UniProtKB/TrEMBL annotation:
Upper taxonomic lineage: Bacteria, Bacillati, Actinomycetota, Actinomycetes, Streptosporangiales
UniProt binding sites for Zn(2+) 2: 439, 442, 457, 460
Any one GO CC term of the record: primosome complex
Record keywords: ATP-binding, DNA replication, DNA-binding, Metal-binding, Nucleotide-binding, Primosome, Zinc
Cofactors required: Zn(2+)
Similarity-based family: Belongs to the helicase family. PriA subfamily.
One Gene Ontology term from the biological process aspect of the record: DNA replication, synthesis of primer
Listed PANTHER family: PRIMOSOMAL PROTEIN N (PTHR30580)
Protein name according to UniProt: Probable replication restart protein PriA
Length: 701
């Protein structure tokens, strides 16, 4: 039976992918597709086309994102395509008068549809690219996130490259050997580390939320866990935030396993190379994968371990519908495959804390004595701290504590300086009355790109060289927020003769050497230093903490600890923020677990995720009202808003609003089902506007 009691059958071999019950499997009726009409109208004349003798009916997932068409449709397999039309292959079918792509899910003996079925037009590729495990996972992800099967498959299966498919298949690499000596095992630093590896080696499914020790050994620890899973005869999948982390884990896996025993999947590879590596995984030629968020659907055979590193990084958030998060996807894969799971980072998110509190995973961390030996020595200075007496240091906005720490540390090696904002001066105001400076054309914020340039609008790009304050008429401006480029310029004056290097979105440094240098970086772009940094300065903490975001404190602590983890043990780290703030205290103690537990308790009291489930609805007011009116929301559902959505620079069209629907955590699936059904009703009625539905969005503003 289906979850809603509708009695939908399950496709044999595809887990819980639902099919249309007998008597209902059919082609689209008038009004199903764009422009209406029967799926292809009358069956096209194809001469003496005959259906295959065995299992002549193919159930096809058509590449259509309309919610009311989110189900498989039946087609006949012609005898000439009998050998190619295998479950999981790509096909072309006629649907709503058009030729569209699709995936063949299964073949059965009969349809149960009384009418005449259309034939498959052709098999695009006989390669079974959609595995039963991924198909079942895609169905569940679509239902959990109020999305469609087709949308998930676009994320899960990369576009085809015929030339790559035709290339000779390489033989798989031999199974990995024992790897490094046990004395070099980074998991011995954790009391439960050996037990976790032993469970993997025995083919069991240990699940852990890992609070990693500061330092570079996290990649080697992941590689060792992957090697253990492979030696047990199972596959492994590692998902990290960006290409730089992929490169680190890739190098660690090569050192642990040897060359050719795993693949790395990133967007930077290009479509052809990425598809080549993806096919190697599909064909069983590689059983270990490391990649960014798109790799969460990689078709690893006999999955034995899933790993997610730094799950709080917002880069993990999928920008395309139905917006699944790798944490949820990998947790479902681990549950389905009875595989081990490792969700780790230098900090702990509230979402990971929920997994520990519910018993789904166990905490895996080093004891406090070992943490104290590995952590840097963190000190804080408030916003009103006295600046250094040196005039150059005052221009660099460095308090005495930070200036002296950097000066002494530069004698031994590089110093890391984290600045929350990129650019030169991303925010300016009137030099007299401090009124924020805005563009006269679009009211966007004005900024300075360099010390000698005129102000410009960050929204529309208009030069505002003749700007005057609308309040007092003054024409000079002052910096409200200072970016990384301006900070690097100021530090160069404060420390003459010291090289200053910058790392940010425009140019990210891969590594820095052990020589003395000031490395100014935005959060997330900090390059590792050979031997570690001799000190770290975390400037302008108020910029991160003052963001109007539910996760501001959690995200600030994550960015601080990721940067501080690059500093040598017991070396100084100075954070410019008030010491009484919980995030600052957690950084000083290097105790992200207690902070996450406190955050979760506050969220539970206030009724916010992850203690509750929440859906965000974005559209025009009329569309939101129509969707909510037609949705059978679960008991206890609470609608917050709607409120206006800030218009993006250059955006056109009607004003949009955003409503939030909150339910208890246990009612999350019921909420997604209700919203999906309401979306289907509006889709069948050909509503002029689609409501954007996001389940548990990272940002609630």
């Amino acid at each position: 039976m289906s979850e809603d009691g509708g009695g939908a059958d399950l496709i044999p071999g595809l887990g819980d992918v639902p099919r249309v019950p007998a008597g209902k499997a059919r082609q689209a009726k008038p009004g199903d597709g764009k422009g209406g009409g029967r799926a292809g109208g009358k069956a096209p004349k194809k001469g003496a086309r005959r259906p295959a003798e065995e299992r002549p009916v193919a159930r096809v997932a058509v590449d259509m994102s309309l919610p009311h068409l989110d189900r498989p449709f039946d087609y006949l397999v012609p005898v000439e395509l009998d050998g190619k039309a295998v479950p999981g292959c790509r096909v072309r079918v006629r649907f709503a008068g058009q030729l569209v792509d699709g995936f063949l899910l299964e073949r059965v003996e009969e349809s149960g549809h009384g009418g005449k079925l259309l034939f498959l037009e052709r098999v695009t590729s006989p390669e079974p690219v959609l595995t039963p495990e991924v198909a079942a996972l895609a169905r569940e992800i679509a239902d959990r996130y109020a999305g469609t099967f087709a949308d998930v498959l676009r994320l899960a299966v990369p576009p085809r490259h015929a030339r790559v498919e035709a290339e000779p298949v390489k033989e798989p690499a031999e199974a990995p050997e024992d790897g490094r000596d046990e004395g070099e095992n980074p998991w011995l630093e954790y009391p439960a580390g050996a037990s976790f590896l032993n469970a993997l080696a025995e083919g069991r499914a240990p699940r852990a939320v890992w609070t990693a020790l500061p330092g570079p050994e996290w990649a080697a620890a992941i590689a060792r866990a992957v090697a253990v899973a492979l030696r047990a005869g199972r596959g492994a999948l590692v998902v990290v935030a960006d290409g730089r982390d992929v490169a680190r884990v890739d190098a660690a896996l090569s050192a642990e396993l040897g060359e050719g025993r795993h693949v790395a999947l990133t967007a930077e590879l290009g479509p052809a190379e990425r598809y080549r590596r993806w096919l190697a995984v599909l064909r069983g030629k590689a059983r270990a994968v490391v990649g960014t968020r798109a790799a969460m659907f990689a078709p690893v055979a006999d999955l034995g371990l899933v790993v997610l590193w730094d799950d709080g990084d917002d880069v993990h958030a999928e920008p395309h519908a139905p917006y699944p998060h790798p944490r949820e996807v990998l947790a479902l894969r681990a549950h389905r495959a009875k595989a081990g799971a490792l969700i780790g980072g230098f900090t702990r998110t509230t979402d990971a804390t929920v997994l520990v509190e519910t018993g789904w995973a166990h905490a895996l961390a080093a004891d406090r004595a070992r943490v104290r030996r590995a952590m840097p020595r963190v000190r804080y200075v408030g916003e009103d701290a006295q600046l250094a007496r040196d005039a150059a240091a005052r221009t660099a906005r460095l308090p005495n504590l930070a200036f002296e720490a950097a000066r002494r540390a530069l004698e031994e090696g590089p110093v890391l300086v984290q600045v929350p904002r990129r650019g030169y001066v991303p925010g300016i105001a009137c030099g007299r009355c401090r009124t924020p400076a805005h563009c006269v054309a679009c009211q966007g914020p004005l900024a300075l790109p360099s010390s000698h340039a005129a102000p410009y609008c960050r929204w529309c790009g208009r030069i505002a060289g003749d700007w005057h304050c609308p309040e007092c008429g003054f024409f000079q401006v002052r910096a409200v927020v200072v970016g990384a480029k301006r900070t690097a310029e100021e530090l160069g004056r404060a420390f003459p003769g010291v090289p200053v290097r910058t790392s940010g979105r425009e140019a990210i440094l891969e590594r820095v050497g052990p020589e003395r240098a000031l490395v100014v970086s935005t959060p997330g772009a900090e390059p590792p230093a050979d031997g570690g940094y001799t000190a770290g300065l975390l400037l302008d903490g108020w910029v991160l903490l003052a963001r109007p975001d539910l996760r501001a404190g959690e995200e600030t602590l994550r960015r601080w600890m990721n940067a501080a983890a690059l500093v040598r043990p017991e070396a100084p780290v100075v954070v410019a923020a008030e010491g009484a703030l919980p995030a600052v205290q957690a950084l000083v103690r290097w105790d992200p677990v207690t902070y996450a537990e406190r955050e979760l308790a506050e969220r539970r009291e206030a009724g916010f995720p992850p203690a509750a489930r929440m859906a965000s609805l974005t559209a025009t007011p009329a569309a939101i009202r129509e969707l909510l009116a037609g949705a059978r929301l679960p008991d206890g559902a609470e609608v917050l808003g709607p409120v206006p959505v800030p218009r993006q620079p250059g955006a056109e069209g009607p004003e949009k609003e955003r409503a939030l629907v909150r339910v208890p955590r246990a009612a999350g699936l019921a909420l997604a089902r209700a919203l999906k059904e309401a979306q289907g009703v509006r889709s069948a009625r050909k509503a002029a506007e689609t409501v954007r539905v996001q389940i548990d969005p990272l940002e609630l503003i």
